[in-house]
TrEMBL record:
It comes from Adhaeribacter rhizoryzae. Pfam families: Rieske_2. This is Nitrite reductase small subunit NirD. Coiled coil: none annotated. Gene3D superfamilies: Rieske [2Fe-2S] iron-sulphur domain (2.102.10.10). Keywords: 2Fe-2S, Heme, Iron, Iron-sulfur, Metal-binding, Nitrate assimilation, Oxidoreductase. Residues 18-119 form the Rieske domain. SUPFAM superfamilies: ISP domain. The keyword Iron-sulfur applies. One of its GO terms (biological process) is nitrate assimilation. PROSITE patterns: RIESKE (PS51296). CDD domains: Rieske_NirD. GO terms for molecular function: 2 iron, 2 sulfur cluster binding; metal ion binding; nitrite reductase [NAD(P)H] activity.
Length: 123
């Protein structure tokens, strides 16, 4: 089975697919943190949309490693994560801050194959 996140992702830029964990390691409609080298990456199983997303785990607002525990939802059809501390919201597709502030986050392509979640890394 192959399942990828929204087709707007930058899959063409991927040089390495990092095997993050089994699908069962991620809560439905929630996230978990994985580590790739020195990077913490938040991975979201957005079950309601049947999509997967990944982004940096650090919220740029207060420099805290917390986005994996954020609330997932959508804003006018745009999948988003809200920081659980100060409710700053970010697009899970582009990384743009949806509150109109200058903060952005890095997003990563995601694919699911044979029961495992892979994160696209560009090195």
């Amino acid at each position: 089975m192959l399942s990828t996140q929204n087709p707007d992702t930058r899959s063409s830029e991927v040089t390495y697919w990092f095997k993050a964990a089994e699908v069962s390691a991620f809560p439905e409609d929630g996230g978990a943190c994985v580590k790739y080298q020195d990077q913490q990456i938040a991975v979201f199983n957005f079950t309601r949309r049947n999509e997967w997303y990944a982004c940096q785990n650090m919220c740029p607002h207060k420099q805290q490693m917390i986005l994996a525990r954020g609330l997932v939802g959508d804003q006018c059809g745009e999948p988003k994560v809200a920081c659980p501390f100060h409710k700053k919201t970010f697009s899970l597709i582009t990384g743009e801050n949806l509150n109109g502030e200058c903060y952005e986050i890095q997003t990563y392509p995601v694919k699911v194959e044979d029961g495992f979640v892979y994160i696209g890394i560009s090195e």
